[in-house]
Amino acid sequence: MTQIQKGVSRHRSIRLKLSNLSWQRGIGNFFMAGVPFSFSVGKVFAEQIAKAIVYTMGAQSGSGPFIVCELGAGLGILSKHVLDCLKSDYPTQYKRCQFYVTDFSQPIVKQVRRSGIFKDHKNKVVFQKVVFGESLPKINFDFCFLSYRSEEHTSELQSPCNLVCRLLLEK
Q: Is 0.70 surpassed by the pTM of this model?
């Protein structure tokens, strides 16, 4: 094995510098560079979230809009798969859903909005920048999910029913 760089902190590593350069291509990097992320945004995982949404919706009274929020959605692929599943398998519940697709990066939020991946759900999705540690916008959600491990981030969330679905993935 050839060593390219001696041990350094992560922010000084060649690996991070190359990664940062590759992200100048935008969200296409996931597809052009083969970034592995299929489990955390895949259809099987999305089906489980859709089932949890339907279950939660059934446990609450009311017939108004059901607000769903994905925190740290990045490219929005997981939310898109969840919406696809709801639309095909649970059309009645799909009609009630309104999705907030959020990320901490405004450029990513803009890119996802312009990407067109939500064209089949255009009246169902709101794109919003959300930064943890700052004051969160008042999203009065009924169901919230995130697909990364972050206990500190979910501690500041509130919902009318105090329900946060933490789908935590160990890296």
A: no
